[in-house]
Amino acid sequence: MSSLNTEQKPEQINSKWFTDEIDVLFSKLSTSRLGLNENDAKKISIKHGKNIIHDGVKESIFKLLLEQFKNLLIVILIIAAGISALIDQPVEALAIIIIVLLAGVLGFVQEYQAEKAIDSLKKMAAHTATVIRNGIERVIPAEDLVQGDVVFIKAGDQIPADLRLIEVINLKTDEASLTGESTAVNKHAKSINTNKIPIGDQKNMVFMGTNVTYGKGVGVVVATGMNTEFGKIAMLLRDTENRKTPLQNNLNSLGKKIGIYAIIIAIIMSVLGFFQGYPILSMVIWGVAVAVAIIPEALPAVVTISIALGVRRMVKKKALIRKLPAVETLGATNIICTDKTGTLTQDEMTARLFYINNNVYEISGAGYSPNGTFSSKGSDVEPEKEINLKFVLELGALCCDTTLHKYDDGYKIVGDPTEGSIVVAAAKAGVDLSKHKQSDFNRIYEIPFSSETKRMTTVNLFNGEKKYVISKGALEVILKSCKLFLIKDEIIELNESLRKDILKVANDMGEKALRVLAIAFKPHFEDNYNNIENNLIFGGLIGMIDPPRPEVKLAIKKCESAGIKPIMITGDNEVTAVAIAKELGIMKYGKSISGNELEDLNEEEFDKVVEHTDVYARISPSHKLKIVNALMKKGNIVAMTGDGVNDAPALKKADIGVAMGIKGTDVSRDAADMILTDDNFASIVSAVEEGRSIFQNIRKYLVYLLGGNFGTVIGMMLALAFTLPIPLKAVQILFINFLMDGLIAIALGVEPTELGLMKNKPRNVKEGILNKDALKFIALVGVLIGLITMGVFSYALNIGLSDEKAETLFFATLIFSRLFNGLSCRSLVNPSMSMNPFNNIPLLSSILISVLFTYAVISFEIFREAFHTVKLTGVEWLLAIGCSIIVLISTEIYKYIKKIKTVTD
Ligand code: ATP
Questions:
Q1: Which of 6, 119, 521, 697 is most buried by its number of CB atoms within 10 A?
Q2: Are strands 674-676 and 656-660 parallel, antiparallel or unpaired?
Q3: 299-316 helix and 246-275 helix, angle to the nearest 10 degrees
Q4: Residue 239, SS3?
Q5: Which is nearest to 154 in space by CA: 650, 647, 667?
Q6: Long-range contacts, 78-86 (Cβ 8 Å, 24+)
Q7: Which range (89-103, 168-182, 450-464, 479-493) has the least confidence?
């Protein structure tokens, strides 16, 4: 945590903003209700710094570089090589030191890249704030907020800086992160006349890092960054976490275990060598080189790079990972619980049907353009002449926070699409909202929309005269509040038969996959706003289309072949939800359940149906938690989407919590493991595919590396066991290690997604990364490489070639065998020949570099002394390459047999 004092600017310190009257506050901060202008904001930002909390001192690049050489074995190797240089092997020792240094620099570059990739992900997950700049409402990165900015906040937002409130509507915040108090705090905008009160009692202030749970408000920024209360108690930055994933931790401990075995093997081998008469110093260097070669020192970097690059690929596919451990679980996901509106559908609503006076009107037109006509029973009508039509739509539009605007490229809405469709329908009917006084079209009071209540209610001054309560929302909810029915010029009792008629119309709309919203109202004469939602007059129903996203159908098909079950969980009504689910192919079991039915089931009953229900409709956020708990209890790996404030517990609980980047609230995004930047279901499926790919690449890398190392050890052990000369010198071992562990292995870790990955069932999470199949592959490769290299070595000695020649042949055969193994490991199931070599350019270039380097150290005089090699003839090269290719052929045959066996099983 960096020191607080470094960022503290005296101008920002005034902890008594709560005492000021609003005009005093404005003048102190040189701002107004219309906010700052851009130039002033820039100047303040330069003066006071960015609105960020510093989360600790970054490690310097130099320190990261030094880290690479902190390994004890590397230190021993450098010292021993130094001594050997002084005694009798200057050229070889120098080569050893150069290779070790190069390997260190390579490790540094890899780690640095991995860190940078994670840093850039952090930036993408940053918050935004809605402010007024130059008199216009704008969304800006929260870090650009400055003292004096006027900021809008609403339910679900995280407060982006410390604000003094100047306007509030039923505003409540959750300040638990700051004060520990878990009940929501009611806020107001009046000044408080006390000199000293604790933060929890500063009811006209809201603080950075706390959340709006209800209502909305406007505030002026009084403190930013480290000067906020949040900054002062110096809590950690809560955006992308880069803690290690369980896989990283497991692999780190696997690496440590291998390290211990490597040291034991190296000691045994160098002792054996010593007894065969090799000098002690060269055996120490050799032993250390063997240990260094066996230890997968690049393992942490490869894993981080594979994950970071995979996560970057996910960003391109619109899925932003916030918590790295999610990446591993993603690939194992077998159930995706998804919202409907905006995730499966386009969330571009257009009102198609309008029901008033017991009559259904059709509305034409596309998108948000206010051009369209009304018709009834096949003939066009003039909206003005249809009694109540314009009036009820006008009421509906007044009960919306959404506005319609004309831009150069057409009409767009600012706000919620459901409301947008009402505003547009009203405009089509000739309603001119601008005739009402501007401030929210003269709204006097409001009970905001929430996913729990499924309604929104306002009190508006209509034409500057009469006050109306207007309520719109889910039909069942609105219908319960209605006692009367508007029909033509009359207001009659809403009897059972009328209720049935209304439900029938709504049901018909739902079956056409239309989303249905009811509008009710009543004149309001009192000055208090208690019980305003009772005794309403039923006005009308609006049926709006929200077409499915075209790419979702394909994504759902992909899920099916990948063994993933999509489940729709929606706040919308059951009939509409089922109609859309059918259209998309989600109704695998043909079962749907409503929130009310779900509440009536006890745990045991629910457990029986939970996995076989395709659609959950009229669901509240608390039901989501119940569903996710039941699914996870059965061992499923569950991804769950959510966007509202109250979705956070379910998102936290799910294996993969998925929040929406566009529609979602800050609170839901903070609780999630992954954010969809386009709110699209198809992006979850792409992310799952990437998750599988990342896991597979790490497995490929491990199989390749451990198989190769195992083979090298077997080859050398066999030579020692048969008291043949030691086949590889220390410098050769390190050279091979640099190429294989440093270059090829990393390239395998970034292999692009393999074809057919989504044709397999999800991975069993209980199975480790080195599952049975992987271990078999490692054993096969290890034994093959060991036997082939040893075979070539003893053949060369048998036919009377010199020790140096036989050793060079061993060296070349080992390198080529491991390169062929690298090619084979591009896929552990598919034939390598079926894979485009240009799909993995890093691998192709690493193989080319390895071949060229090997040719150079064997063929060029200047390297031969350092690398203890001798020149090979054409036939000898052919012998080395020809024998090595057996590794590729055998592993390909093995994969083929395994594939046939899987198909016949
Ligand atoms: P999903 O959960 O799939 O996103 P949804 O958008 O229908 O579906 P909610 O936003 O919780 O879920 O809405 C639930 C219900 O509340 C809707 O079906 C609708 O009847 C009603 N509703 C939605 N938006 C509004 C609004 N702005 N004002 C009043 N009622 C609304």
A1: 521
A2: parallel
A3: 150
A4: coil
A5: 667
A6: 80/281, 80/284, 80/285, 80/288, 81/285, 83/281, 84/281, 84/282, 84/285
A7: 89-103
**What's the predicted TM-score (pTM) here?**
0.78
Task: Let me know if 647 is a catalytic residue.
Answer: no
Give the residue from 263, 284, 257 showing the smallest Cα distance to 273.
Answer: 284
**How many C-beta atoms lie closer than 10 Å to residue 15's C-beta?**
16
> In the numeric block, which tokens belong to residue 588?
């695998």
Cα-Cα-Cα-Cα dihedral sign, residues 550, 552, 553, 557: positive
SS3 state of residue 437 = coil
Q: Residue 544 — very low, low, confident or very high, per pLDDT cuts 50/70/90?
A: very high
pLDDT band at 441 (very low <50, low <70, confident <90, very high): low
Find the length of the chain: 905
Q: Are 303 and 324 in contact (CB under 8 A)?
A: no
Q: Which atom of ligand 1 is nearest to the CA of 450?
A: 11
What integer pLDDT is reported at residue 65 of this predicted model?
76
pLDDT of residue 615: 97
Neighbours of 240 (CB within 10 A): 21
Pairing of strands 150-154, 128-133: antiparallel
Backbone angle region of 486, left / alpha / beta, with phi > 0 → left and psi within -120 to 50 → alpha: beta
Using a 6 Å CB cutoff, which residues line ligand 1?
Answer: 339-341, 416, 418-419, 449, 451, 454-456, 472-474, 517, 570-572
Look at residues 44, 51, 48, 7 and name the one whose alpha carbon lies nearest to residue 237. Answer: 51
- Give the pairing of strands 565-569 and 490-493: unpaired
State the distance between the two ends of the chain, measured CA to CA, in whole angstroms.
57
Higher pLDDT, 350 or 437: 350
- The tokens describing 870, both together, are 């001798």
Strands in 88-182 per DSSP E: 128-133, 136-141, 150-154, 162-174
What confidence tens digit (pLDDT) does each residue in 749-787 have? 778 888 888 998 998 877 778 888 899 999 999 999 999
Out of 101-105, 259-263, 839-843, least confident range: 101-105
Whole-number pLDDT of residue 424: 96
Question: What integer is the mean pLDDT of 220-249?
Answer: 67
- Residue 276 is classified by DSSP as T
Per-residue pLDDT band for 5 (boundaries 50, 70, 90) equals: very low
Pocket test for ligand 1, best of 443, 479, 572 (most atoms within 8 A of CB): 572
Mean pLDDT along residues 640-656: 89
Distance 455 CA to ligand 1 centre (A): 8
What confidence tier does 52 reach under pLDDT thresholds 50, 70, 90?
Answer: confident
Give the integer Cα–Cα distance in Å for 644 and 213.
Answer: 10
Out of 339, 347, 416, 614, pick the active-site residue: 339
Q: Put residue 462 in one of left, alpha, beta given phi > 0 → left and psi -120 to 50 → alpha.
A: beta
Q: What is the arithmetic mean of pLDDT over 186-203?
A: 85
826-848 per-position pLDDT tens digit: 999 889 888 888 889 999 999 99
Find residue 516's DSSP bridge partners. Answer: 543
With residue 486 as reference, give the H or E element that holds it. strand 482-487
Give dist(CA 454, CA 471) in Å, integer: 11
Span 563-594, pLDDT tens digits:
999 999 999 999 999 999 999 999 999 999 99
DSSP secondary structure, 517-581, as one string: EEEEEEE---S--TTTTSSEEEEEEEEEE-PBPHHHHHHHHHHHHTT-EEEEE-SS-HHHHHHHH
* Residue whose CB lies within 8 A of the most ligand 1 atoms, among 154, 451, 619, for a mutation test: 451
Q: Are strands 359-363 and 350-356 parallel, antiparallel or unpaired?
A: antiparallel
Provide DSSP, 586-647: --SS--EEEHHHHHHS-HHHHHHHGGG--EEES--HHHHHHHHHHHHHTT--EEEEE-SGGG
